[in-house]
Amino acid sequence: MRLSKPRRRDPARPRLVDRWHEAAERRLTPVQRSLIVTWISFGTTFGTVRVITHGIRGGWLPWGDISAGGRHLHHYNLGIATLAAVGLIAVRGDGRAVGHPGVAVAYGCGTALICDEFALLLDLQDVYWAKRGRLSVDVSLGVMSVLGAYLTAKPFWHEVGRVTRDHVASATARGLHGAA
User: Fold this and answer.
1) Could you tell me which residues come within 8 angstroms of residue 86 by beta carbon, excluding any fewer than 6 positions away?
2) Residue 90 and residue 75: Cα distance in Å, rounded?
3) What is the 3-state secondary structure (H, E, C) of 28-60?
4) Nearest to 18 by CA among 132, 160, 124
5) N or C of the chain: less Cβ packing under 10 Å?
6) How far apart, in Å, are the Cα atoms of 88 and each of 37, 81, 91?
7) Per-residue pLDDT tens for 104-142?
8) What are the pLDDT digits (tens) for 5-24?
């Protein structure tokens, strides 16, 4: 088996990720950028929390539930603390922090942590693993996350699709497979 040399990137040809960044700069207002970061962090956190909770319950992750003083701490508690911190930033009114992507990420993550256990908060019973606690939360929050990310920046996503299609077509035309 012969290993090929790593191909050098042509500095005159921007990477696909760079082209996406340029599309975001052209198509999205600062508010839209914050919203899209919020929605993406919401969806990512929601999915990650679901995998972790299933791993803890299934015993295939090396750690267990978080507890303090023998009491189980639900992840909505972390979400509430995160949203309280984001609220403090908003109340303080620090202009540099208000539109910062880190604040948008924290807001999306905190909201997902709370929404993931919404059924528990609504019924005040731990129904997380019951059908009534899981199915509605999984479906509704998954759909909300995808729709929110799409609707927040519809023109941007259309341009990302066009840029990606053009990039792949150009790479294919040059015979460079996997140039993305």
Assistant:
1) 103, 106, 107, 110
2) 23
3) CCHHHHHHHHHHHHHHHHHHHHHHHHHHHHHCC
4) 160
5) N
6) 20, 11, 5
7) 999 999 998 988 888 787 777 777 777 777 765 776 678
8) 555 666 667 889 899 889 98
